Amino acid sequence: MQKICTGLLVMVIMASCNSNGKTGNSSVHSGDSSFVLNGTINGLDSGLVILFNVQKGEEAEPDTAKIIKGHFEFKGYAAEPQLAFLALTQQDGPRQPPLPVYLEAGEIKVDGPKDSLFTAKVTGSAAQKDLDKFNALVKPLEEKQKALYMQYQQVAPTGDAAKMEEIQKTYEGLQDEIKTAVAKFVKENPASYVSAFQLAQVFAYADEVKPAELEPLYNGLDEKIKASHFGKVVKDVLDKSKTTAIGGAAPEFTLNDVNGKPVSLASFKGKYTLVDFWASWCGPCRVENPTVVKAYNTYKSKGFEILGVSLDDKKENWEKAIAQDKLAWTQVSDLKGWRSDVAALYGVKAIPMNYLLDKDGKIIAKSLRGEELIKKLGEVLP
């Protein structure tokens, strides 16, 4: 199920794609792979436009272009259609969402207003036409999700767990509808680069990847789409999801605890263990923590343990959250945030996420939330 804290999943994809960085631009370009992106910003005479190519990876510097009398231009190379985001440097007023643009060989034109670049018209790209078609299909659902996200943000500071859970369930219901729409689009458009991206965003970057759902859709893609950047992303996620399938052995790892002492997952064998991925900055994780504390206090005397794996990147924030939420179990982290090696090993793309292991270290359940966690522990530890 999709968590509200990962509503803007594309940002997670931006942060993760550079794990396979060779799928981006090649250092050798042919003449027919060049593109020119011409833009017109109505009502803005000067300024800067930023172009972030997702497929170059998060660490790549975005390109910039000056706006001269309302016009700007980018030139580059794209051996295959590449997803990028176009944004204005911060203007007065609320922050605008970026405009997704598919870069591909030829001339691409962007025409939009300065106060709503996200609504700009993009022409000259075949992949962009597919994106427009897809957006028309899911826009009503995404608008409802956006409203729920804003409602969640308003309720979260009040600590009203019941209301937050109600919003979460409604949000997840809409996500299921979006998954159905994506599956339909992919089946009808197997030769579209947009299909590969949407599979990555909606299926591969869910908090629980389900190979039985994703693999048939991936297998139905044209070979050139499978070999594309996001085709490779989906394949990588599929492969990793199989290593954490229920019934298989949990991948071994060793990380340092808050005192810098190495702790191995193997040391927990002999007890039912919850490997719990979380972070101090993740609101839903913090909301979930009281339930995890309850589960620990209820079942620790019956052979239950928890190994918390934090995706924090600042030790002080990590330690503060442990103290505030009264997390009495072992906590480990490499303090790399989303670049955590263990998160990559387990294919974690959204948090909170957890894996319940039996005494032999085999995965018997995952993504247990709220009363589901308590119920499952009651089954295995009566």
For the sheet with most strands, the description reads: 5 strands, mixed
Helical fraction equals 25-40%
Average pLDDT for all residues: 88
What is the number of E strands? 15
Report the CATH topology name of the largest domain.
Glutaredoxin
Task: Point out poorly predicted stretches.
Answer: 1-30
Describe the structure.
The chain has 382 residues and is of the alpha+beta class. The protein has 3 domains: 4-23 and 30-124, Immunoglobulin-like (Sandwich), CATH 2.60.40.1120; 128-243, no CATH class; 254-380, Glutaredoxin, CATH 3.40.30.10. It has 11 helices and 15 strands. The strands form 4 sheets. The protein has a 5-stranded mixed beta sheet with strand order 13-12-11-14-15, with helices on one face. A 4-stranded mixed beta sheet has the order 4-1-7-8. Strand 9 (254-256) and strand 10 (262-264) form a beta hairpin. Helix 2 (126-155) packs antiparallel against helix 3 (161-188). The radius of gyration is 22 Å and the shape is elongated. The model is unreliable at 1-30 (pLDDT under 50).
Task: Please outline what is shown here.
39% of the residues lie in helices and 22% in strands.
Question: Key features?
Answer:
single chain; 382 residues; alpha+beta; Immunoglobulin-like; Glutaredoxin; five-stranded mixed β-sheet; 39% helix; elongated; disordered N terminus
Please give the structural blueprint.
Blueprint: H1 9-16, E1 34-42, E2 46-53, E3 63-68, E4 71-77, E5 82-88, E6 99-103, E7 106-113, E8 121-123, H2 126-155, H3 161-188, H4 193-204, H5 211-219, H6 223-226, H7 229-243, E9 254-256, E10 262-264, E11 272-278, H8 283-299, E12 304-310, H9 315-325, E13 330-332, H10 341-346, E14 353-357, E15 363-366, H11 371-380
Parallel strand pairs: 1-7, 11-12, 12-13
Antiparallel strand pairs: 1-4, 2-3, 2-5, 5-6, 7-8, 9-10, 11-14, 14-15
Helix pairs in contact: 2-3, 3-4, 4-5, 4-7, 5-7, 8-11
